[in-house]
Structures are given as C-alpha cells and as structure tokens.
Design brief:
By secondary structure, the protein is an alpha+beta fold. The protein folds into four domains: 11-137 and 211-338, 3-Layer(aba) Sandwich (Rossmann fold); 156-200, no CATH class; 351-443; 450-667, no CATH class. It has eleven helices and 32 strands.
Amino acid sequence: MAAAFARLAGGGPYTLVVSGKNSITLNDVMVGEVWLCSGQSNMEWTVRSSNDFENEKLAAAANGHIRQVKIGKATAGFPEEDVKAEWQVCGPETVGAFTAAGYFFARELKDALPGIAIGLINSSWGGTRIEPWTPPVGFAGVPALKDINDKLILKDPTSGPYKETLNKYLAELQAWTAEARSSLQDQSLLKPAPAYPEALRPYHLSASPQQQPATLYNAMISPLVPYAIRGALWYQGESNLGDGMMYYEKKKALVQGWREIWQQGDFPFYFVQLAPYNYGDPQKDSEIMGRIWEAQAACEKIPGVGMAVINDIGEATDIHPRNKQDVGKRLALIAMARTYGMTNVVYSGPTFERMAIEDNAIRVFFKNADGLSTRDGQAPNCFEIAGPENDFTVANAVIDGRSVVLSHPEVKGPCAMRFSWHKYSVPNLVNAAGLPASAFRAGEVPKIDYLALKIAEAKDYQLIYDLEIGKGGNKIVYDHDESKNFTGKFDRVAYFLELQKAVGGVNYAYVSMDAFTDDINLIGVPTPDNKANFTLKVNNLTVISNVDGIVNGEMLQDSGCIEFYPNNYGPANASNIPNASNDVWDFGDQVSLSVPVGHGAMQVHNYAAKQTIFAYNAMRSGNYADLGIGNSPVRADRENTKRTRDWTFHANAREYRVKRLRVLVRPVK
C-alpha cells in the first residue's frame, strides 16, 4: 500500500525518515515544482555549451534550490518500471551538465517563486524524432496516425493481430518442417524456410531503435510514471522537419498520451519553436520551415499547450542556438502566466487575429499587440502578399495601431499573405514586451494559370497532355491525356513549361511550331513505348518566355530544332544543325539507336540564337531528371556539366517545387 503524506510547504531541505522493521533516513529532500524536460539535442544541450558559461557557472552558486536528474539513454520494446538515476544539486561544479533550456527556465521560476525548489527531470536524446517518445495510447487516440498504431499493435504479444500473425507463421513453419523431414529422407531439394514476419519484430531490436515508435517512451518516460510533475517542457522538431502539418497530429498524440499515462489531468505542456536555420541548399524548399512553424503554432490549440517563439535568437549557421537564456526565460513567462497565475506577465508576442482586404492592400490585425512596433525601428519585414496575377511578393508593410497594412505596386487585388515563411526569416515585428510574432499565413492563394494569362495564342490551341514532372517516379504519368480522344488534324504543336524553385516566382517558356508529325502520340514525352524519335529543324517558331536571355519572337524563320528520343546521345553534331558543337551537348547531338532505353531527351532549341529554349532529359529519373529553361549553367558539384548547354547531366528536377509541362495542338478547322 502506498504511503500518503500530508501536504508540505515548498522548499527544504527536509529529512525524510521511513520506519518499520528498520529505519531509512533520506536527507536533503526538497519539496517544490517538478518539470519534465524532453526532446532532442536542443533540450539535451547543456549550460556548459551555452552563452557566457563562465559567468553562469559562478551564478549557479546561488541556485542550490534547483535540482536535475538525468535519465540515461535507452530503448525498450515494452514499458519499463524503473530507471537508475540520481538528483544533482545545482552548483558551480554541476550546472555545466544541466539541460540549458530547462535550467534557465528553472532559474526564472526560482526568482518568481521565492523559496520554492525547482526539479528538472532531463529525459532527452539528440537527433530523435517525436514518435519514439510517444506512448502507444497516444497513437491510438489520433486517427491520422492509425498506420503507426496498427504497426505497434502487431508488435504487442498480447494483441489479437500479433497472435494471429504468429500462429499463421508457426503453421507455415510446421508445414515446412514436415517438408524438410521428407526432403532429408528423399534427398530432394528443399525450398528455404519461411522468414519470421518482420512486422512482429520488436522496434527496439531494429536498426536505429531510438527512432522507432514508443521505444524511448518505454525506456525513458514510462519509468518516471507516476512521479508527480507540474508539467512538461519540450524542445524538438528538427528531426521531423519534413512532416508539415502531420507534426501537429504527432504532437497531439504525444501530449494526450503522456497525460493519459500520468493520470494527473491536463498538465501544462510548453514547447520551444524551432529557430531559423539553413537546412540544406538555400534554393531547395526554403518554405520547409514555414510549414513546420505553422504546425507548431497549431499545437497551441491543444488545451494547456503553449509555444515559446524564438525566431529572433536563432543562428542561421548553427542548429543549436547558444542563447538558451532567452529560451528558458520565454518558457518561464508562459508558465508564470498560465500555470502560476501571474496576471501581470506578458508571455506572448503579436499573434494573428484576422486579415481584411482594403482596395489594393491587406490589413492584418493582431492580438497581444500592445505597443506594436519593430525591434530595430525599421519597417516590418518578412511579409509577403499574392494576387490573381502575382505569386508571393515581398510586401511594403506599415504599422497602423494594432494592425499592419501590406501592399506592393505590382500586386493588384491582393488576396493572400504570409509572414516569416522562409527558413532564414528573422522577423522584426514585436510588441511592447519585446516578444516576437511567429509565422502564419492567411487568405486564399490564387492558382495562376500563366498559360491563359500570358499566352494569347494559346486560346486557339487544345490541351493534349498535362504532366507534373516527377510525380510518377520513373514513369511518365500524365495528369491529363487527351491523345485517345483527339481524332482531328492539327497544324501546329506547342509546349508550355512552368518551373518554380523554393525561392522566387514562376519561370515559364512557351514555344510553338509547325507540326513535325501528324501522330498525336509522338508529340508528348518520348518513351520506349511511343518510340518518338526526332532530331530535326522545325518551322515558324514562336517563343514567349519570362526568363532573362531567352529570345522571344513570333514565327521565327530558320531558327528552331527539336531533339526528342528515349535513347542515349552524344555531343557530335550528326544532323549538321547550324551553330551546334561537336564537343558540347547542345542542340545538335547524336542519338544512339543501339540503346533503345537510355538517358533520353526532350529539347526545343533556337539554334540561330545559340540557345536551348527548354530541356527535359533523363525523363525516367523522376525528380532526378535534367530540367531547365535557357542554356544550362556549369554546376560546381558536377564536373560533366562543363560540357553541356542543354541541361544534360544536371539531375536537378528535385530543386523545383513547381514543374509542369503542357503539350498542345492547334486543330485544323
């Protein structure tokens, strides 16, 4: 039977004596607020590795009421009940090993709650995802995570699906054993034994067990239950960066799961927003942070959950911000206001309330916006707006009371906006407390059809093929295919390629020409199936593009050529195309018919201008195809691109978030 104690006053140290057949005395016992600190490396990050450690070490002498217990790293297949760990008293010799985010949080609380001890349970592991920290009951409570829950059920020996799968395997193994005995007697060939079902293999016995669902919960969280805690602090997300809004579902599973197993009500759960950081190539998916920030902000809809915004204290070249002092302080502000009821504490920066369209401007209203201003005295930054004819464009922003008015002279009728959406974004918008605003977006982003908007002659053409490049992997899978329904004749063929990287607007190239074939099946992407194979000049070239350097014109004579084939090809100018090189892959290459399925090319050129209009090569390589408008540049990371002008060997399709190719014909009336 568990012992019950009368409520003790916070502080200490106390002496605890347990008497029975013998007597056990525990000294230096503190009573106070206990917070669980969990997550990946930014929670594991120590005071020793943070800013101003030498001074922090000296100051720690006054913080003996702060204690930490560090849970050792471990994984398990089932919930454990105990863990070996011991409390450490904060002091100059020990503070260096404390979780920095947790310690600076505790230090702020210590000053706000005089005489109260603060205990930190540091259960963190660098580089880990959120799923390993989540209990099975958490996954079970979130329908969007049914696939994870189903896999966990299959690994539970008490579950029906586990027993059913194991019995099926045992029956197969028994049948094989009988065959093996017969084979041994008959000296006949024997097929291999059935493999143990991988779905039953415990996660903690897999590769990288610390990344598998529930393994860290089982070993590093479950043993802590039912230790009384005031709440939890969480600093994680870097390893789930690509999850987008699914991270919200996973955070919901974590929070609800912990609350369910702790049975201490909806205890507070406060977490740290990821800071701006250069995740990979700056040209590749710069909006990845915007999506995870949006998901993190959505987590505040979960009761009792709050987010500390730190987009002003990150370091673009370091995933671990050294300024953990402000991280801890902002977590503490939330706790002071929401957990400890300190009504005079401002804990949030400006947060989006609503937007309104006013003529050619958008007005954004904010909550928590007393003293709305900028940290540096400059105009608000990191705002973008979009309109019916414009992609997102950096906006001119003006503060007006508790709102910000956004406009741009080239954006007429704006209908959508976003704030702090780039992974490098360091916004300067703050309230009177100096707390920053976080990323958000609002409005309906217009779907701009640049073909209809920019290409007047396209109204006389009929769409035959529409392809989202890379969507079908190593296969060409059209989103729209009218080739079987088109039964008439056509006299011209047109191609419209749209490309957009993570940074910048849409680039497009439209090119039309007299029909070079009367077979509708041969004008699309060349494949081994359609056997399209063309290396020839084309007549009456019309080119319309917004890419710098592309020569635009209508019905250009003696200028156009195409290279369409699924084969390998070399740089020799076998077709004697004017201005083409024999040494460089450009607009006069030689196809190798001996290899019917090779690299492949779909290229349209203006040989008179010595330029590629567009190229789509290595079409069966999905997002690693070669893709571009204009002459291709030399890439520092690809030596063989020094000899290409037609994007051959670039393998760059993955760098575009929009890559759409449309093929049209002009019907003969």
